[in-house]
Every structure is written in structure tokens, then in C-alpha cells.
Automatic annotation (TrEMBL):
SUPFAM superfamilies: P-loop containing nucleoside triphosphate hydrolases (SSF52540). Residues 15-246 form the ABC transporter domain. CDD domains: ABC_MJ0796_LolCDE_FtsE. It comes from Tenggerimyces flavus. InterPro entries: AAA+_ATPase, ABC_transporter-like_ATP-bd, ABC_transporter-like_CS, ABC_transpr_LolD-like, MacB-like_ATP-bd, P-loop_NTPase. SMART domains: AAA (SM00382). It holds the Pfam family ABC_tran. This is ABC transporter ATP-binding protein.
Length: 251
């Protein structure tokens, strides 16, 4: 009998760390923000990183995104080890393979929504993929806002433009740092729904840092960080699941 065909048993990993240590400062005042973290985030999923203040969750995201150097260990985007790249290579990787979404939006006030959206392509010297742009604009419901400047947009609309900008280069992964931190609960829920929609309908990979259990419950998976290491891992979380995991940390 011929052997059964091989099957893929593991999901593709979009971003990962292996034994990552991050220390700020030196001597008796040194802070060990990450203490040997090994974790992987699957492609095509919406993952959240959650933990109490000072747990290391933002440091982990900054290291994963190549925004901060690790003290030891390795960080990968796909199969690329970020710790082996020089500054120019790292800048190119962040520009072409990583998207960023922050709570401050970071839209240029003198540019229209469309111009802000296209900016990463202009900086990279790449031609727009009009079909992809049309898909982003439709999924994020921005069709009638493309000629508006940021001051003419609501907070939720500005964050959706920022999300479209993060997705425009078709990055391997989008890192979202407290993306609803400056939004009211209704607008925040809208943005979280669009993040989830970008994963489901556009095949995107999103890794979000949040302190909010309700925001975390929009994700497919929550990685709980405490004292610089992984303290929990929840699939298909509810807000109650996240609250329970955090309460077990004694914070």
C-alpha cells in the first residue's frame, strides 16, 4: 500500500521570538523587561498580547516589530531573523513586510485620506495595486471619505484610514499598539470589528497589544504576559476568560 500523503500539521508562523531577553539599563537599576520569551503568532489570525502594566507586553511587540533590539535571543518575521539584519535591512523589512497601527493615528494633517493611505507605497517607490486599494476601501467603509483631510474625519474614521495605510503594502503582519486607546467604547468596538474583518476577509495577520479584556476578546487568541514571560494562552477568548486569566496573576 502506498504511504498516505503528507499533511501540514502546523500553521505558518508570521512572527515569533525564541528565548528573548530584553534588559533596559545596567547595574542595580537594570530592568529585565523580557525574561526568555518564546512565542509564535500564526499567519492569518488575530492575536492579542495582554498583561498588567509593566508586564512586558509592549516591549514584546516592539521587539517583534523590529522597533527595539533584543538583549539576547532571536526574533523572526516569517523565516527572517531580525537580529541578524543591519540597520538598512531592518528599515527595509519594516517598510515592506510590517504594518503599524497606533492609538495616535499618526496621519499627516495636510494630506487627504487617500494621500495618507498611499504614503507607504510612495516611500517604498512601489506602484499602487488598485484592486487591493479598492478592496481595503470597501472593507473599511471609506468610499466617501477618501478626499477628506484628518480634521474632517471622526476618530474612528481616522483610525480606519490608519489601518488601511498599515495594510496597503500587504505586510506579513500588522502590529497594533492599543489601537482603541483614544476612542470611545462604541468607536473602539467598530475599529476592533474592522481589525477582525481584515483578518477574515483580507487574510491579514494582526498582533495587537491591549490592556482591555473586551478588546482582547475580539481576537482569535490571547497571549497573557506577566513579569516578562508568557503566563497564559487562550484560544477563542471571551472577556470573562481574559479577566479570569488576569485575576490569577494577582493584579
Amino acid at each position: 500500500m502506498p504511504p498516505a500523503p503528507a499533511t501540514e500539521t502546523t500553521a505558518r508562523i508570521a512572527a515569533s521570538t525564541s528565548d528573548v531577553v530584553k534588559i533596559y539599563g545596567s547595574g542595580p537599576t537594570a530592568v529585565r523587561a523580557l525574561d526568555g520569551v518564546t512565542v509564535g503568532f500564526e499567519a492569518g489570525r488575530f492575536s492579542a498580547i495582554m498583561g498588567p502594566s509593566g508586564s512586558g507586553k509592549s516591549t514584546l511587540m516592539h521587539c517583534l516589530a523590529g522597533l527595539d533590539e533584543v538583549t539576547s535571543g532571536s526574533v523572526r518575521i516569517g523565516d527572517t531573523d531580525l537580529t541578524k539584519l543591519n540597520d538598512n535591512q531592518l528599515t527595509k523589512l519594516r517598510r515592506e513586510r510590517v504594518g503599524f497601527l497606533f492609538q495616535s493615528f499618526n496621519l499627516l494633517p495636510t494630506l487627504t485620506a487617500e494621500q495618507n493611505l498611499l504614503l507607504p507605497l510612495e516611500l517604498a517607490g512601489r506602484k499602487p495595486d488598485n484592486q487591493w486599494i479598492d478592496s481595503l476601501v470597501e472593507v473599511l467603509s471609506l468610499q466617501d471619505r477618501m478626499n477628506h483631510r484628518p480634521s474632517e474625519l471622526s476618530g474612528g474614521q481616522q483610525q480606519r484610514v490608519a489601518l488601511a495605510r498599515a495594510l496597503i503594502t500587504k505586510p506579513d503582519v500588522v502590529f497594533a499598539d492599543e489601537p482603541t486607546g483614544n476612542l470611545d467604547s462604541k468607536t473602539g468596538a467598530e475599529v476592533l470589528s474592522f481589525l477582525r474583518q481584515s483578518v477574515r476577509e483580507l487574510g491579514q495577520t494582526v498582533v495587537m497589544v491591549t490592556h482591555d479584556p473586551v478588546a482582547a476578546s475580539y481576537a482569535n487568541r490571547v497571549v497573557v504576559i506577566a513579569d516578562g514571560n508568557v503566563a497564559g494562552d487562550i484560544d477563542d477568548p471571551t472577556a470573562e476568560d481574559v479577566l479570569t486569566a488576569i485575576s490569577r496573576l494577582g493584579v
